Structures are given as structure tokens and as C-alpha cells.
Amino acid sequence: NPNAGFTRLQPKDRPKRLLRRPPPHARQMYKVVAMVDGISLSVYDGITQYMPGVTWYQQALENHRSGIYVYPSYEHCLKRDAESFPSESALLHAPRAIAVVKCWNEPSWEAPLCYGMKYSFSYLHVLHLRPFPVSWYSSTLCSREARLAMNAGAQDALDDAEESSTTAIRDSMHCIRRSLAHVAQQVTPTTGSRQSTRKHTPRSAARSP
After folding, report:
1. Looking at 65-180, which runs of residues are DSSP E strands?
2. Origin, by domain of life (predicted)?
3. Do residues 122 and 62 touch, judged by C-beta distance below 8 A?
4. Longest C-alpha distance within the chain, in Å?
5. DSSP-based three-state secondary structure for 46
6. Nearest CA to 63 among 123, 3, 124?
7. DSSP alpha helices (H): ranges in 7-143?
């Protein structure tokens, strides 16, 4: 069982948010997240927010003691829950999405820890979110009403997340334009131009024969 050995994380042991961008050696991976009120959260602890543009750090340690878990492909994210998450996961029954991420370790030559097809890295940067396929919900062991509710909830959550990201970008661009306009008002254009002076050399009179 790839989940054997998981222990509940204490608040001090949860991933820490960093102001970092992924380095050149970072690898593209995929992570299953829960969508709650437009926020992509850790399925396991129910608290860590895996929103686009955010970088997280948690030192990867053997025997599931620590680390950030991801899969090498979109398809691997669609495994059954018994293979993907411990039964005590906080948001096991929440609507889901797949976060496309960049993962890496430091130093760069340090390989990720492997638990079957699940990888554990120390650093993760979220690029964007992708929806879970409808077929995944339809194949889970729950009622038709529950499947429809989960699917609708996941799509609504993704729409909310996309709208929030768009609004944040729009606000940032507005602030940048205002700053540029303010700077432009402070700059006094230089008037006048340099005039180059040419020395006039009179022609010498022609000599009479």
C-alpha cells in the first residue's frame, strides 16, 4: 500500500509558503487538490492552499515522514482513493481538480522519493488547474445525486478560482497603469534643441591673371 505509514501532520509540520519561482531543473508534475469555495486545498490536510502562482516547501523525508506528493502524469491522478490518499484525509469527499505544478529538490541532483507511481518532492510551484473528468465521478462508489453534486461543485469551484485569478490580474494591471501615469506626470519634457554652429569659411577671392 503506497499510503502505509502516513501520519497526521501537526500545524508546524505543514508545507511552508515561499516567494520563489521554479528553477530550470524543476520537473512538471501533477497534483490532486480539493476545490472548496473556489480555493484549491490539500486533500490530505484540508488547509494548505495550492493556488496558481504559489510555491510551497516541505522537506521530503523517507517513510512518508514529510514531503509534497505528486504524480508524473494527469492519468495517474485518476487512481482510486485507496491508492492515492489515506482514509483519514480531511477532504477525501470534496470536489476535485488537478494542479499542474513544477517540482524540484535542492541540491538539483537530489532525486524525489518514490512510492509506487507517487513522488515526493521538497518544493512545488503551482502553474494552473485542470478539471477532473466527469467519468471519474461517475465511476466512484456513490449515489447518482452525489456524483452530480460533486461534479457541479468541482466545475463551480474551478470557475470561481479562474474568476478570482482574472480579477487579481486585472487589478494588478490597473495599478501598474496608474503608477506609469503618475511617473509620466512627474517627468518634465526637455524643451529646446541643440543648435550646431558651423564655422563659415569665406572663399578666397580668385586671383587676377
Report:
1. 68-70, 96-104, 113-115, 118-121, 123-131
2. Eukaryota
3. no
4. 121
5. coil
6. 3
7. 81-84, 134-138
Spell out the residues 6+ positions from residue 167 whose beta carbon is closer than 8 angstroms to its own. Answer: none
Question: If DSSP codes are grouped into helix, strand and coil, which group holds residue 71?
Answer: strand
Count, residues in the chain: 209
Q: How far is CA 16 from the centre of its chain?
A: 14
* pLDDT tens string 130-171: 998 877 765 554 444 445 555 555 556 556 655 655 555 566
- Other C-beta atoms closer than 10 Å to the C-beta of 97 total 23
- pLDDT exceeding 90 applies to what percent of the chain? 43
Of the candidates 168, 107, 158, the residue with the CA atom closest to the CA atom of residue 132: 158
Cβ–Cβ under 8 Å, residues 83 and 107? no
Distance of CA 87 to the CA centre of its chain: 26
Cα Rg for the chain, rounded, in angstroms? 29
